[in-house]
Structures are given as structure tokens and as C-alpha cells.
Amino acid sequence: MSRIAGLIPRNNKGTPRLDAIMITRLLGTKQIVRDGFFFTENQQASAKFGSIQIVIDCSIFNAGDFSTPQKKLPDAQRVLLSISKIGIIRTLEKINGRFCLAVFDTKTNVLCLGRDRFGLSTLFYTCFDGLIAFSSRAKGLRGLPGVSNELDHSFLKAAAATNYRFLDTNNSLSPFRNIKQVPPGTIVRFDDKKIQTEQFASLTIDGIRRSNKPTSEEYIHLFNKAVSKRLRVAKKPIFSLSGGLDSSSVVSMAQQITRKKQTAISTVHPNKLYDEQEEILDVIQAGKANWNSVTITNPNIFEKLTKIYSSHDYPLPTVTWLNHLLLVEEAAKLGYTDLFTGLGGDELHAGEYDYFFYFFADLKKMGKTDLLNKEIEAWVKNHDHPIFRKSKNVALERMIELTDPLVPGRCLPDQKLLNRYKNLLSDDFQNLNDLLPNYHPTSDSYLISHSQNELLINTMPCCLRSGRENCNLFGMQEFHPFLDNELFEYMMSVPPEQKIRDGLTKAFARESYKGLIPEETRRRINKTGWNAPAHEWFSRNHRDDLNDLVRSRQFIERGIYRIDSVKQMISQHEKIVLENRGRPNHMMAIWQIVSLEIWLRNLDI
User: Fold this and answer.
1) Which helix H or strand E contains 592, and what residues bound it?
2) Disulfide engineering: 55 pairs with which of 27, 38, 165, 596, CB 3.0-4.6 Å?
3) How far apart are alpha carbons 433 and 48 in whole angstroms?
4) 277 Cβ neighbours under 8 A, 6+ residues apart
């Protein structure tokens, strides 16, 4: 991974002189290579061809698809040659992999910034004083003369007290008002007069395969390819392993491809509710991997976040990413450079609990009333919970709230989720309407459209960003085999009734994994999720730290929260946890408050 940055004059104006400190801040690294208007860590990340110059941060998994005069050309030269032959749009459409890039033509004075279709890499930009500046890091642009430090109001609202699914509903924004982000699958084009955006990757699918149904054999072939391509690029891989289907299948496929045990790593907790050690051992005892465990007992959340946020462009949205941080730290100590994950598996295979409601809407739209009733019954039987109750009425109510019956495939934002903690926000932050996404159907299936909304808007952006920023701290990079162009396109053509069946998520994947993963893992119904007992940490171990934070002058004077409402919520949370009440606690909201405040203090704001 090589960070990139640049400073381009518009209207042929000269570039300002930047001292070494400012360039270091812009790029976010001590090692700097300057090539014309571009800065990077690695000389091979930039190239020139005639009047065109490129700088790119990438891992390209289909480099062999780009014909070149020499076999071992750096990716920057390979991509630039392709752009000179077939143009930038067709070139970027062709890349299967992680990338962000800048292409500048000194003859036409046109700059293009681009980012891969899933947003595996990130790229920010700003315009000021006749200049265009871009960087892999949003914080790198803050230090430039003429760039405001003012925070974006929508970002503050989303980060303060809404569910993490609403952090990226506008994927062209950043935490800072005057700094924008290149959206995934998009080119931002600058000339002397205007700025234009153009999508090069569309998620709209050609159609669901019902007559020629997808098969397990086809899927396994593509899954094998996705893992193989990433193994060829990785230097020293280690596999993040939970008790779930996705990470288990990735490490098992790697073992099958290489015919040797891989190295896996997991977080474990003394609190059995959050500990997946027993489930993880099914994969280990089946001979798929050698295992390293990271035991998390009582991390010093406040100290840890304070330490890392100098390099993070965003606050970590949930405690899951503290788990991830501690796992990555240990993996780096062990000497590994590349972390393989199962991220994207839920979106491809329909794995989250709320996917059922979109599936039910599909069955209703198709007029399959008997199958709808049968699936709702199976959902209640398999997933009813003493706190989160399941019933036919709940299923029908949520289906109405989350889907538009007049437009097949159009999903509606979950307003209950958005507004759950709205009462914590001060009057200036009460209007959350600008955080509501306007979902466009990318399929006539509600389930498929929702999967793609999750990938590009709801869940995946903050997950990819948090994983990437954690890994950057320790010189590691992540590989996500499920976020593969071919595999993604294939799975979006799988009919909803093949993805969810008999009240079980990931039905198609489960069927396909016969013989690949242990039967105990393949048949497991319950989904723990990669969580942590932060509800206990806040109500017991860090109770004083939390109370000091919300009573501090700094926190109060920001004016983001209604302080009395926050104190009341924390008090209620403590009672729920200490009395072990059978109702949801407020851990996720408390995490957001703490994470955002520590991040803001790191900015000296």
C-alpha cells in the first residue's frame, strides 16, 4: 500500500512552495517521492507517457488482463498504457482490485481522480486559491494554507448519535466541510472551468437467473479464483477467523488451494456471550489452519483511542473495530503483512437478520403467498429471541416500513434506526432528514437492491474504512475475496429464494460449501457477530472515565448533545447492565459518544 497525494494548478497557475513538514502532512508518511505534481511513498507508484502522468495506490488482481510489452511492468505503467490505448473509463472498468489514482494531462490541463468500485481505497480532494489538492488522507489536506478545518454538519450528526448505517449516505462528503471524497466507482474530472463526475462502474444487474439457475459448481469456481488471485499478491497472509460462515470459508478455500494449513487469528473474550472460541475450533480441528488467539479482557478504551486517532480520518463507528485493531496489532507483531477477511460475505450471500424483510417483500411481489407464510414461520422458529421478538406481525410491519410496494426493488431507509437516539442531540442537530438516503433500485428484487445498498451506502463503507485505517497503523493491508468483481456480479444474479430458504440466511453459500468447511460451521444458525462486551466496560471498568468525559467543559461546550439526556441514557444503561434486565442496552450509542469526542479532541477542536 502506497499513499498518494498531489497539488495541481488550475488555469496554468504556478504551485505554491511546500516545505517538507507540509508535504509530510499532506501524504501522511515520512517517506516521500516527488514526481512532478504528485507525491507518493514509492517511485513505482507513478509513471509518465507523453503528456500524461499517473500516480496510483493499488493491488490489481487481474494484471494479466492488461497486455504490455514487458511482463513485469509496475502497475502504474500498466494502467497508464491501457489508458493511452482504450481511455480511462474502459481501463478502470477493467480493473479487478483495490485502487485510487490521479491522472493529469499537462497538455489539456485536465485532472482525473478515480476510485475502485467497492471503495477499497479512498481518495479526498479540495480546491482553493486556483489549486486542486488530493490525498489518500482527508487529514492531510487540512494542513494546507487556505483549507478550512471546519467540520461537516451532516457528518457530526451522523457520527454523534445515529446508527453506523447512516455515516455514508452521501458518499461524496468527508468529515470536513471543504474536503470532498471521490465516490466508489467514480471519476471526478477537473478542467480549467468545471468539475464533473462520471460513474465507470454500475451496480445495476442485467437480471436474476431464474431459468438458468446459478449452481454451486459455478460459485465455487469463482470463489476459488477470487481467493487465488489475492493469495498471489499477498506477501505474508494471515486470516481473520470468527465462528461464522464467511471467514471460515475464506481460510478453508485458501487451505484447499495451497494444500497446506493457513495461519488464522481471532479475538476471544471471557464473556461467553461474545466469545466464539468453541465455534472457531470447529475449523481449527478440521485441519484448515493454525490458530492464534487474542484475548481481550478489559482494554483501556480511552487510552487506546487517544493513541490511534492522530492517524484516523474518521472515528471508529462501533466496538467491533476495537476488536479489529487489537487483532491487527497482534498480527503485525507476529510478522504478518496481509490480513484476509470475510467482509462482504453478508452482502453477497444475504447474511444479516434484516435481509429477511426484503426477501419477504420479494415473495409477496411474486405472489408466492404460501411460500411467504412458510418462510415467515421458519424465520420465527429459527430466530425468535426473548428481547428481539419475532412474529408474523413484526415481519409484515417491517416489510411495509422498509420496501416500496409501488416500485419493485426500491428499498426505504430505516427511519426507526435513524431516529432511535435523536433525543440525545441538541436543537442544532435535530434535523436528520439530510441523512436519509434516496435508494434507487438496482434490481427488481428488494433483496438484491438492499444488498447493493449495504455494499455502497449502509454498512460496507465504514467497515472498509475502519479496517484500512487500523491496518495502516501497523503497515498491513487487507484482502477481501468476497469483494471481487466477478464473484459480486455472479452473486447478484442468484435469485432471492436461493439465498434464503427455510428460515436460513446464506442458503446458496451453505449448499455450495459442502465438503469445504466443517458441517458444524455450515449448518450453524445463530449469528454472533464480531462484537465485544463493551456494555460492561462502560458500566463498570470505565464508568468514571465515561462520566468525566460527558461532564467535561470541552464536551458540554461543543453543543452537539443535550447533556441531561446523555446522562440519563448512561444511567439507564448502567441499570440495565447491572440488574441484567432483559432489554436492549445503550452500548452502541455510548461508544459513538466516546469515540467521536476523543477523535474531536485529537483534532484540537
Assistant:
1) helix 587-602
2) 38
3) 46
4) 266, 268, 293
Looking at domain 216-348+459-523, its CATH architecture is: 3-Layer(aba) Sandwich (3.40)
- pLDDT per residue over 69-92, tens digit each? 777 889 999 999 999 999 999 999
Sheet of 110-115, strands arranged across = 46-49, 52-60, 97-105, 110-115, 186-190, 195-199
53 and 83 in contact (C-beta within 8 Å)? no
* DSSP 8-state code for residue 437: -
Q: What's the confidence (pLDDT) of residue 16?
A: 63
Cell numbers describing residue 132: 486542486
State pTM to two decimals: 0.95
Q: Which of 146-150, 184-188, 203-207, 503-507 has the lowest mean pLDDT?
A: 203-207
Q: What is the CA radius of gyration of the chain?
A: 24
The side-by-side arrangement of strands in the sheet containing 477-479 is 289-295, 262-268, 237-240, 338-340, 477-479
Number of alpha carbons in the 13 Å side-chain half-sphere of residue 309: 22
Classify the C-alpha dihedral 581-587-593-597 as positive or negative: positive
CA atoms in the 13 A half-sphere facing the CB of 531? 15
Q: Element (H or E) spanning 101, and its range? A: strand 97-105
Strand-pair partners of 115: 100
Task: Answer yes or no: CATH 3.60.20.10 is held by domain 4-152+174-199.
Answer: yes
| Alpha-carbon torsion angle 113, 114, 120, 124, nearest 10 | 20
